[in-house]
Queue: 2 jobs
Job 1
Amino acid sequence: MSEGRPTRRTVLAGALGTGVALGAASLLSGCGSAASDDRLRVAFAGGGSRENLDPHVVLNYVDQARAKACFDTLSCWSEDMGAVPRLAESWEVDPTGTRWRIHLRDARFHDGRPLTPDDVLYTFRRIADPATGATAAKLFTTVDLTASRALGPRDVEVVLTAPNFLFPLAWAAPGAEIVPRGTTSFERPVGTGPFRWVSFSPGGPALYSANPDHWGGAPPSRELEFVPVDEEQGRVGALLSGQVAYAFDLRASSAVSLGTDSRAKVLSAPGSASQFLYLRVDRPPFVDPRLREAVRLGLDRQALVRVVLLGKGQVGNDLFGQGAQYYDTAPPQVTRDVEQATALVAQAGATGSRIELQTSTADPIYQAAAGVIAQQLGEIGLQVVPRTLPPDSYYATIRSQGVSSVSSVGSLPLPDYIGRRMVSSATARNFTGYRDPQIDALSAAAVATPNEADRVASYSRAQELIRASSGMLVWAAADMHVGIAADLGGVEVARPNTDRWARFDRARLG
Amino acid sequence: MTTTAPAPGTVDRPRTLPRRLVGRVAVAAGQLVAVSVIVFALTAALPGDTAEVVLGQQATPEQVAALRAQLGLDRPVLLRFADWVGGVLTGDPGRSLVTGVPVADELAGRLASTASVAGLALLVIVPVALAAGVTAGRRPGSVTDRVITAVATAGQAIPEFASGLVLVAVFAVTLGWLPATAGGGSFTGPAVLVLPVVVLALNQVGRLARQIRIGVVETERAEYVVHLRRLGMGERTLLLRHVLPGALPPTVQQLARVVDGLLGGVVVVEALFALPGVGAGFVEAVQGRDLPLVQGYALLFATTTVVVNLLADLVSDRLAPHREALR
C-alpha cells in the first residue's frame, strides 16, 4: 500500500469522525434559550420572509394581530361592523359631511411622546400616499391634508374633499393604525398599543412586552409572542401540547374534534367569511343570465354548509355581510330548484357543457366546495370540472382567467365592501367582470347623506343589483374558529377585523 | 460502429483515480448547469410572479405592473437568466426579489437548522440501519430477518407527512413528552429536534438497512467467508474483518441515496414542524416566484446531491480493494 493514499480504515475513521462532529455541531446549534413560561404564545399562519411590521401594510391576519398589539386605531369595528371609539375618544361631523372634528384620548407612545393631532394627520398622509402601498389607502384618498389641521393638543379637524358620513369606519380598517409623526421605518416599531416591540424576524417569531402605561391599563400577560405555524395541524398540535395558548384559524373538522378535548376550547365566530361562487358575467357561458340563474337555483346551499363546513356556518343568500349593519334581510332565501335550473340550462343551450371551476389550496374550504358544487351542478346538466391552481397566484389568476371560481371574503362593514370592492374603480378585486355605474352612484350617495333611512335605502338597492347581476353567489357565511387553552381567559368570540378579535391585552392565563 | 483491439504488446490501462475524478467533476458541472436551466424554466413557467405575490390580493394591475418593472420582471426571461448566470460566475448569485437580502445570506441563515435535523437523522440512521441490516443478514429467512425486513419496508412506505402527524399526535398531543412544533424558531433546544429527526430517520433507515442486509447475505455466501468459517475463524472477527468490509461498498452508494432522500424529506418535515430551514425556505421561494432565491436553493440541493454521490463513488472505490485488479 502506497504512502499518502487513504486506506480503507482511514476512510472509515474519517467518515465516523465527520459524522460525530456533525452531530455535535447539530446538537449545539439546536440548543437555544429556554422558553419562558410567563409568556402568552399565540399561533398564526405566518407571512414568510416578506413580512415586516409596517402597520399600514397588513396582508395577512397575523400582520393585523401584530399591528393591533403594538398600535391603536382611532376607532374599531364592532361585531355588527359599526364604528366604536378607541384612540378617538369622541367625534363629530359638520352638516356637509366634509369636516370631522376628532377628540383624541390621552395616550402616549411607547417612547413617552404624547399622542397629538400631528400624528393622526401624518398617519393619514402616509396611508394615502401610493408609495406606501397601504392596505387602507383607498379609504383615505378624500382627505384634504392641506386643509386638515390641529385644533388643540388633543383635537384635530379632518377635512374631506367629498362628503362621507361614515368616515369613522375608515379609521377602524385593518392597516389604519396611528403611528408617530415622521416614522419611516418599522424595524423597531413604536406605537401606543398595549404591547411594546421586543424582537422580530420576518417569517419567524415576534416578541412583545406588556406596556404598563397603556391607556387601557397594563395587559395581564407580561409578554406576548406570535408563533408562526403555517400548517393547521401544527397549530392544533401546538395548542394541545401546551406550546401555545391560542391557535388562530382552525378547520371545521379540528373545531369539532377540539370540542371534546378538555385541554382546549373552541371559539367560533359566526358569519366570519362569506363563501363565494364567482361566475364571469363578461365571458361566455355566464354572460347569459339564464345560465347564471340556473347555477343559482342549482346550488344546494344547505348541503354545502353541511358537507363542506360540517354545519359550522350559515346558509348564504347571495349577499355579502350576514349579521352586519345594512345587510339586506328582505330578499327571500334562495332555495334549490333542480327542475327549473335544468330547464334554464336547456334554454341557454348549455346542457352537457363543460365548465372549468377554478379552485385552490389557498383556503381549505375551496377544494371541498368546488367538488360539491361540481356534483350539484352536474345534476342540472352542467359538466363542471374543478381545476386546482397554485395558492399564491390564485387571486391574480382568477381575476384574469377562467369563467368561474370559488373564493371567500372576511368580515367587513358593508359600506366598506361595496365602496372598495363593488364600485367600478375596484379593479383589484373584481373577479366576475361586473361593473355597474348605479353601484358607484348608490355607494357615493349612501356615504354622502346624513339621513340614515336614505342610506339604508341606497345600500338595499345596491345589494339588490349586486344580487341580481354581479355573478357573485354567496353560498354560506362560514364560522371562523380559534382554539384556546382551557385555562386562557379574557378572549372573546369575535369576527376577525373587529375590536374584540385578537385582543391579547385582555387575555389572561391561568 | 467498430471496435479496435489493443495493439499487440500494449495494455488497456484503466483510467486512474485522478482522471476519473476529473471526469466526474466535469459531469457534475454539467448536471448543475442542467438543473439551473430546468429550474429557471419551470419557475418562469409558473402562473403569477413575484410582483403579484408581494402586493397581494388587493393590488391593482397598475401597481403590479409598476413593481414588475421595478424588479426587472418585465425583461425577457433569457436576458434575466443570462444575468443570473453572469452573477453566479462572478460569485454573486443575486438578491431575493421579495426581501432584497443577498441569496447567499438567505441560504446561510437557514442552513444551520437543516444541517441540525439532517445531520442528527444521519447519526440515527447509520447505526440503527447497520445493526438491523447485519442482524437480519446473518440469519436470512429467520423470524428476526422477516420482522426487520417488514418493519424496514413499512418505514419506507409511510410518507414523512403521515408519520409526522401520527408521532405528533402520540408524543406531543397525547403524552405531552415532546414539542409539536418549532414555531418558526420560537421554540429551540434539542427536544424540538427529536420528532423531526425521528420522522426523517423512520423513512430512510429501512432503505439503508435493507441494502446492508443484502450485502451481508451475499458476503456470507462468498466462498472465502465460508472457507474462513470452516477454518474456525471466530464469528466476531469474521464479521468485522471480512463480512462487513465486503458488504460496505454498495452500502455507501445507498447512503448517498439516503442523503438525497433526507434532502427531499426535510422539505416536508420543516413544513410540518415549522422549522426555519432550507426546505421551508425553498418552498417559500417557489411560492413567491423568487427566481434568484429558487435558483440558489436548487443549486444548493443539486450541489449537495452531486458532491455526496461523488464522495460515495470515491469511498466505494477505496473500500473495494480488488476493483483495480479486476479491470
Job 2
Amino acid sequence: MKQAMSESQDIEIATTAIVTDGQPDSKTRRYDRQLRLWAASGQSALENARILVISGSATSTSILKNLVLPGIGHFTILDPANVTPADAGNNFFLEGPDSIGKSRAGEAVRLLGELNDSVEGVADTSSLEDILAKNPDYLLGFTVVIACNLENEVLEKLATLLWEEEAGPALVVVRSAGFLAEFFIQFHEHAVIESHSEIAPSLRIDKPFPALLEYATSLDLAGMDPTDHSHIPYVVILVRALEDWKKSHGGLPPQTYAEKKSFKQGIQSMKLKYDEENFDEAESQAYRCWTDTSVPSDISKLFQDPALSSLTPTSAPFYHLVDALRRFTQEPPHTLPLTSALPDMKASTESYIHLQTLYKTRAEEEKKRFTELLDVPLDDALVDTFVRNAHGLKLLKGKKWGALDRDPGDLLKALATTPKELAIHLSLSALASISAKHEPAITVEALTAEAQALLPPGTELPDEFDDAVGEIARAPTADLPNTAALLGGLVAQEVIKVITKQYVPIESYCTVDLVETWTGVVKFA
Amino acid sequence: MATASSSQNTDWQDRYYHIDQVLDKPGPRTDPAFLAGDGVKDFLRNQAKILVIGAGGLGCEILANLALTGFKDIHVIDMDTIDISNLNRQFLFRTKDVGKPKATVAAEFIMKRVPGVKVTPYFGKIQDKDDDYYMQFNLVICGLDSVEARRWMNATLVNLVDPENPESLKPLIDGGTEGFKGQARVILPTITSCYECSLDMLNKPTAFPICTIANTPRLPEHCIEWASVLEWPRVHGDKKLDTDDPEHISWLYNVASARAKEFNIEGVTWSSTQGVVKNIIPAIASTNAIISAACCNEAFKIATSSAAYLNNYFMLIGTDGVYSYTFEHTKRDDCPVCGGDSLELSISSEFTVEQLIDLLVEKQDIQIKKPSLSTPTSQIYLQAPPQLEASTRPNLAKKVSELVPPEGEVTVTASTLPFSLSLRITYT
C-alpha cells in the first residue's frame, strides 16, 4: 500500500509541477509554462547548472537570454573586449551608444541579469588564452561551455582540454556569418532516461500478464448486464478475443490478412447491440493482438554497450539500470517492465479503474523484480523514472569537436548523404581557417581552396557549396540580429536538453540556412 | 543617394556594420532586382512601416529583432495585460509590470533600448481597426496564440487585396509555437496558400463527451471538466468563471479532487486543473526565439530583397534533435477565404439542418463556431439577432433537402469570421 502511494505521488510530481495541493507559489507561477515540459526535476537541474559563454557578441547574448529566462543557476561571460559602435548596433543586451567603450561582458551581464533575479551572472574580462595557459581548471568548473565564433587555434586548445576530462563540461561550438550558421556539441556520452518519447509503451495485449488474462477470461460475457457489456474496456475485449482465437488456432494469433479480417469480424459479432462503441474501439485496436511485444532494437542495442561488461559499483547509475534491464528482459515474457500508463478508452468508471489497478499492481511487481536485479542500491525515484521510461531510453555517443574536418573519409560520406548541410559546414570551416591567417580580403576563391584542402584531392564540390560560400564571402563578419536570435533559440534549446537530461539533443553539426529558411544535420555514419 | 535626414539623428557610425554587409552586395541566390546600397537602406530605415500583432511570447522577440535590423516605424497591437507566468519568456517585461498592457510596456522598452525606433502601441483588439488602418502598412507579422485572431487577420488582408492597386497586397508572416515545436510561414494574400487553406493541419482540440464527464469519469481531466462545465454553473448561477482568478481555480480544484476521490481517480492537482480549464500550452523562450527570428528574417528579406523569402512554410520539431521541414503549402481552390470555388458537401437527404450545423462545427477544414445558414433566396437558420433566431429555429428540425435543392448553394456565416463560406450541397 505504501509503495502504491509513493508511486502515485511521483507521477504527480513528474507530470505537473512542484506544488500538488493548494495554490502554487510565485516561483511555480513564473515557471509554470516550462514546468509543464520538464517538471521540477528538469528545473532543479537548470538551477544547479553553471554556464560559461565565451564572447559577449549578439549571438552569445541571444543564447544566454534563453537560459537566464528559464532560470539557469549561474552564467559567466568571458570577454576582454570593450563595446564597439558595431556591437552597440546589433546586440539587444547593450544600451546603444551609452555602452560604447565600456566592458562588453560587464554591460551584457548587467542587462541580462535584469531578466531574472534568481540567476547569478559574472563578467570576466580575462582572455581565454590566459586562462588556458595559467588556470585551465577554472574552465572545468562549468556544466556547459559555449564558444561563439572563436578563432581556430584557441578553440582547438579549449576543445582538447574539455575533451580530455571524461566528466568535464560539454562544449558547444557556434559559428555564423551572415545568413548561414552551424553549431556542434562536444560530449563523450549523454544518457537520456526521460526522452519524452511520443511512442506509447506496449499494453502487452499479446502477452497478457496473469491477472489480466484471468480477469478477461473470467467475465461472463453472455450473462452480463447489457450496460456493463457496453462498458468493457477494449483491452479486456481484445485479451479475451485473442485467447479464444488462439484456442482454435494452435495457440497462434491471427497472421494472414484473411485471419486478421476474420478476427475483427469475430469482435463485431461479440456485440449484443449494434451501437456498442467499446467493441468498435476494440476492432480498431485489434492490430495490438498481432504486434509482438518484444524489446525494441534501440534498447537491445544498449545491452551490447562495452560499459556493461566492465561494470563496477562506481559506474554511472544509468549503466547499472541498463544492465538490470538486460537481465529483466532475459526472463519471460522477454519484454520491458510494464508501465501503468493506460490510455483513455470507452469504459465505465468501475471497469476502467479496475483495469488500471491491475496494470498498476503488475507494474509494481515488475518494478520490484527489476529492483532485485540491480547490482547496486539506487534511489527509488530514479528506478521508478527509469522503469516508466524504459521504452524511450537514449544513449548518445559524442565526438570531439573538429574530428570530422580531420577525417576526409567522413567528409566524403557526409558530402554524399547531406550535401547542402555539409556545404555550409565546409564554408564555415574554411572561413575560420582564413580568418586565422588575418588576410585582408576573404574571397570565394580563397574559401574554396580552404574547403578543398580538407577533402581528398580531386573531390568535386557540390553546387550547394557555391551557394554557401558566396554567402560567406558576402558577409564574412556579419553577426546578423535575426541569425543571432535564431541561433540563440536553437543553441539554448539544446543546452537545456543537455542539462536537464530530458528530450534528445543533436548528435552532429546542426546547420542553418536563412536564405531558404531551413535547418539540417550533417550525417556521416 | 544620400541617406534621409531622419535617421541621421540617431544612427551612429558603424551602427549597421553587420547588417550593411548583406545590404551592400548581393549573394549568389539574391534576385537580380535587388538594389544594393543606400536605396534599400533608405526604404528599410525611413519608409517601411510594419505591424506586429501580439506583444507576448513571440511579439516581444519580434519587436526586438525588427528594431535591431533597422525597421524604425513599428506598430504593435495586443489586448492582453502582463501576467507573472509570462515572465519566463516575455523578456521585455519585469515583475513590476504585472497587470500593465503588454503592447504599451513592450513599445516603451524597445524605444528605450534601441535609439531612434518608433514603436506605436495599441492596447486593444485587432477587430477594432478598419481596412484603412491596415492599409498603411507594408508588412504584417503575427505572433498569436489564437486560431480565431489569425483567421480574422488573414481574411482581412485577403479581402484588402485590390488587383488594381499593388500596394494593397500586404505580405503576412505568421509564427506559432507549442513547447519545443513551432512554425513560421509567409502568406502573400490571394497569391500563396493562406492561413485558412491550411486549417486542417491544426491538431483537433481535445473535447470530452458530456456523457463521459457526467456519468463515467476515468481521467483526472474528466473530473476537472465536470467541476468547470457542470458544477460551476450549477453552484454559482450566472457568475462567470474567471480562469485567471486563483480563487476560482482553487474552487474547481477542490470540487474536482472530491469527485476524483469518489471515483478512485488519481492525478487531479492545482496545476492540472489550471492547465485543463485555461487550455494551457507549454511555452519557452528558446522556441519563441527560433520562430520569431525566422519570421523577422522573412520580413527583412521581403523589405530589402537582399535574399529570397521563404516559400512558404517552415516547421520545427525540437524534441528529438533538431528536425525541421521547409515546404510549399499549396493553395486550396475551395478555400473559403482566398479560393474561388464553393466547397462541395455531400450529405444524406435525411440530414436535418441541426445535423448539418453539427457537421460544420466538427469539420477540421471548416472549424466554425455558431454558424448561420442561408440560401440565395431565404434564411435557413440565424444565430442572431434573437427575433430572427426564434423565427428560424423551427428549421433546425427540418431536412436540409426540403430547403435546399440538389447542387444548391448555402452561405455560411459566423460573427467571429470576417468572411462567408459558400457550400454546394449534394445528396446521397
